[in-house]
Design goal:
By secondary structure, the chain is of the alpha+beta class. The protein has 5 helices and 2 strands; from the N terminus they run E-E-H-H-H-H-H. The chain has one domain. The longest helix has 28 residues.
Length: about 110
């Protein structure tokens, strides 16, 4: 299962740059750190709205995670992203991670 994640950098309402990352480029440690910071284990739905609400409480951690995930993204550029887009990125990341783990667990059960 592969997922292409996109993060937009804005100037006002205009997208000035888009970064892309494939899930296979993202380190497991980054996924674990994001899951811990967002308290993913306590989320009910993992919806974009729910993730946006949680992002507010850990905003200082978000930029370094984004810079780890998107090669070339600077801390300054990360300041000019949108919460909605960040939530979509994290939602996609966790959907991929959960799906991958379920697939691995399913394969292990067959053995």
């Amino acid at each position: 299962m592969d997922l292409n994640l996109k993060l937009h950098v804005y100037s006002g309402r205009k997208i000035v740059k888009t970064y892309e990352a494939n899930t296979f480029d993202i380190e497991l440690g980054t996924v674990e750190d994001v899951a811990e910071a967002l308290h993913l284990d306590t989320m009910q739905s993992g919806s974009v709205q729910e993730i946006m609400t949680v992002l507010v409480g850990c905003v200082s951690l978000v930029r370094p995670f984004l810079c780890d995930m998107f090669d070339g993204l600077t801390m300054e550029e990360a300041k000019h992203t949108r919460t909605q887009n960040i939530a979509e990125v994290f939602q996609g990341l966790f959907a991929w991670f959960t799906g991958s783990m379920n697939a691995v667990n399913g394969e292990n059960k067959k053995k």
